[in-house]
Amino acid sequence: MTSTTDPTTVAVTSAGPHSGAIELPHGALQRPAEMRRNIDVSGLVDHEGGLLDRAVFTDHSIYAQEMRRVFAPSWLFLAHTDQFKKPGDFFATFMGEDPVLVTLTREKKLKAFLNSCRHRGARVCRADFGQTRNFTCSYHGWSYDLDGKLVSVPNEAGYPESFERDDWGLVEVPHIETYNGLIFGTWNPSPIPLRESLGDMAWYMDAMLDHDDDGTEVVGGIHKWVLDGNWKLAAEQFATDWYHVNMSHASALMVMSPTGKGPRDEIVHRTGRQYVDPNGHGAGFPVHTKNRFDAKTVHDHTDYTALRERLGDARVEGPLTNGHATVFPNFSYLPVNGSIRIWHPKGPDKMEVWAWTIVDKCWPDEVKQAQRLYNLRTFGPSGIFEQDDGENWSECQAIAAGFITNGVALNYQMGLGSEREDGRYPGTTSELYSDAAGRSFYARWRTLMNTPAWHEGDAR
Q1: At what angle do helices 231-240 and 436-449 cross, to 10 degrees?
Q2: Is Iron included in the keywords of this UniProt record (predicted)?
Q3: I need a labelling partner for 35 at 20 to 30 A (CA). Which of 87, 299, 328, 360 fits?
Q4: Interval 386-414: pLDDT, tens
Q5: Phi, psi of 287 (to 5 degrees)
Q6: What domains are there in the chain, each with its CATH number?
């Protein structure tokens, strides 16, 4: 997609021979500037002082601006490579609120398209995943191949001579890249490379994704559920918030402890580090020489010596197991149970959670099964930890729109000034109990919200 001389008009693209240029003009259509007026959010985020205005969770205009300035230009998680084994395999997901289809073409190339027919706009595929030769709209029968090209139009003779199928292919996501089994896409026609966007965050991700040359795979499908709450509440918690664990998850920790009385004091008051990325990513993790996987079957099978040789002591004693992380804006993961998830925005006060369990491909089936079950019991839709988190986010959202409540600032000051280069973990880190990555998350959000995206030219 390319910017146009008129900042109020969005140029989009179709698949086909000219998809590299990715410009499809609207013709005589032109949107009024009032429809795309942007808000200066500088006063809503005080990164240096650690304060946040609750309007970032409730205002509909801000939410609409997020779609065009945060989600449209960012690298967004789409799927895992293990979901695509044969040509024609596809997976339906979202980029922001835009429905997209990720598919493997006959040339075994990953592509993604807007899941919307160019005729009247209905989805061309209503299945969540599967295998196909073509995507056919059930409204009027327009059909598209795996490369997004329009290949069949009922009553095509009724269209004018100027009608060309090549002009009406599916709108293609211009850039798809993978990182250690994870597929990301962006609508930005000239993005910085994915690896560069990840920066030092990739080192922390590798503690979960790069245990051996075989990589990871998905087990157990995808679990989906809807929560009341703004998507940022979940994304920032996974980036920055170990602080809530002992309070919010007290009952779960008690149930899981060997004595039934809760974990030992040295576990409750663990020390660790929190990675703070300038691009808004974040990761927190306890640090201990004997950090282990929680599922006993997984722990017993794991060769920690081999992992130390591949990943180094710092990763094995830190982000390999217990911990939390977010890749900005809305992809998060938990290494200890193999959980990866996306927080799909569904309005300023609602999100849809999609969660996968990933495991090392080389693990025996019984070890994979043990990890899958452990993930379901803890962070599945009815998991003993997941329910605590969802209730917290919904509670925060439920009262945030009150007139007085909405004007009361939120405190993100824990660990203020503690950020530093610690010499052991890449990049800037803070204490385990800190809001540092949260402050960085919202600083990045503020920057993107106040920066014209690729489709706006120099408009503000």
Answers
A1: 140
A2: yes
A3: 328
A4: 888 889 999 999 999 999 999 999 999 99
A5: -120, 125
A6: 77-177 (2.102.10.10), 199-449 (3.90.380.10)
